[in-house]
Amino acid sequence: MLDLKFIRENPDKVKEGIKNKNEKDNVDEILSLDQKRRTNLQKVEELKAKRNKVSQEVGRLKKAGENADEIIAEMKSVGDGIKALDDEVREIEEKMNELLAWTCNLPHDSVPVGRSADDNVEYRKWLPEGFSFENKFKKLDHVELGRKHNILDFERGAKISGSGFPVYVGKGATLERALINFMLDLHISQHNYTEIMPPFLVNRDSMKGTGQIPKLEEDMYNCEKDDLFPIPTAEVPITNLHRNEMLNEEELPINYVGYSACFRREAGSYGKDSKGFLRVHQFNKVEMVKFVKPETSYRELENLVTDAEDILKALNIPYRIITLCTGDLSFSAAKCYDIETWSPAENKWLEASSCSNFENFQARRANIRYRKANDKKPEFVHTLNGSGLATSRLMVSLLENNQTEDGKIIVPEVLRKYTNFDIIG
Known about the structure:
By secondary structure, this protein is an alpha+beta fold.
């Protein structure tokens, strides 16, 4: 959530940021309501001062034995006026908070201005030694490989739940579990993260806190009876661990990593790539979440990206990093890098991770603050998160880049201690 004072003092800057993100501009309506609210609050203070003065006059008249009925009636009228203004202020604040909840975060100054994904900018690229974009033999795609070796079953997943709900079978299930455990272990042992095993269902306040609600509610599953949401990412429960908490400066930065299944309706995604893992409604992900001091947050964003890169380098998977332009940024992000892995069968890059800095946008919504050692006034932390990584599209690249000419799949060396096999097929 944006700071109302910042909007009041920088309306043109806020409007420009919203415009560059292709989001709806509520600035004028917010400022109009803010002005009305402040005017009413001033009237309330004036009426309260008058009530105090009249109350003193009533006391004086009663003490002198004089009739105070007229002044008492006037005091009641003043009280009614205060109540009416208080009610109006409350209504204004509710409307203003609703508009603020629908107002996106502003892009950081370093984010390239653009209208869509076509305007994203390649940041850097890493290719394994000896890698070539030219296939030496016809590569089977991940669906064909999954069917050939009986390790993935999308058809039975569709029968059980519907399209977009994959089933991992045999060595496929073991490989998926190995991938998750490897990523968690590396982040914990080498990157100094604390592991969290979060709930997979969260309440409405948690979804509001990280910015999924109200903007993205139609893309989320909802258990209406209890108003609980299956999480779209572990970012939601892990970030909300510290909702409504005051942290100490010496605790920062806090680095958490956690595995979760993720659930997304993606109601607005029909017609996009839907084959196999390219678009699913349930997938697995290892998520990194950081709570940091504002002055370090953009350095921590670079660290977050590097932590995800270490996974891909260890797996020997070609990848590139994209700086998202303003028009492709998420509602809550101030800056975001996407990490894309190469699919030789699809002959294109696939998004496998997003690493975002939200600055204090989520912290304001979730009321997560910290207190500096020598400063009585608390500040909002900056929150960041990144996929480290999502396994679905990562599995596409892992299977396709490690297949042999006769259709076998070589298991990356770093996963073999988890799988206890080094080849599938």
